[in-house]
Amino acid sequence: MKGHTIRILILAMGMLMASHGAFAASLLVQFDFEGMGNMITSSPPLYSGDIISGDDIVLGATWWIRLDDSNWPSASTPEARWTYLFNNFFTYSPTSYSWTGVFDEYSCGTKPEWEIEHSTNGMMHGTLVVVVTYVDENMNGVLDLDERDSGEFSGTLIVMKYGTGEFATYCGGGSYNGDFANSDPANWADD
Are strands 26-37 and 46-54 parallel, antiparallel or unpaired? Predict the structure, then answer.
């Protein structure tokens, strides 16, 4: 089964180290990562991959994002699942000619989760909001099949204070953005 590729352009996380008395330190981490996933045929939806460049503390780590699909139609009925997601998560903007879907604790039931694990430096974990945007290239208000072949991701994330190793005392927030490609939008396995 093919997955679709996610190419996250940049993820910037500002994390605050737990305060001991009046002292607090901060860390800004930037990196690029890419991977695969499928929210139409996988239950629960899981996206995962590798960090391919960026700051040494996370370079070479793996990552994953998991969404709560407990209220969605079964992954065994891909067309019904896609229709449900598109009708319930996405809104159309006639001014920007795009559809935007928000996956958060309100639309998914629980907030999506993420994790980064580095073999030497430890693990970071938290929650995030995933925003998916498809562009209406012909500006007709209909999401055509060829318009489903690419789009953008963006969102915010929270680093929870239960990491390990180098990340054990970090918590805070950040943001990310990037793009995705779907090589065969007519094939649900590629969605």
Answer: antiparallel
Nearest to 33 by CA among 141, 138, 115: 115
Q: 54-88 pLDDT, tens per residue? A: 999 999 999 999 999 999 999 999 999 999 999 99
The DSSP code sequence of 86-137 is HHHHEEEETTTTEEEEEESHHHHSS--EEEEEETTTEEEEEEE-EEEEEE-T
For residue 80, give the H/E element and its range: helix 78-89
Q: What is the pTM of this model?
A: 0.83
**How far is residue 183 from each of residues 56, 71, 189, measured CA to CA in Å?**
32, 28, 10
Q: Sort strands 62-66 and 46-54 into parallel, antiparallel or unpaired.
A: antiparallel
Neighbours of 67 (CB within 10 A): 25
CA distance 61 to 113: 17
Q: Which residue type is seen at 145?
A: L
Query: For the stretch 43-66, what's the b/e string if a residue is b when 16 or more beta carbons lie within 10 angstroms of its beta carbon?
Result: bebbbbbebeebeebbeebbbbbb
38: nearest Cα among 2, 80, 84, 79: 2
Name the band, by pLDDT with cuts 50, 70 and 90, for residue 191.
low
Distance CA 57, CA 64 (A): 17
Residue with tokens 């990491």: 163
Average pLDDT of the chain is: 85
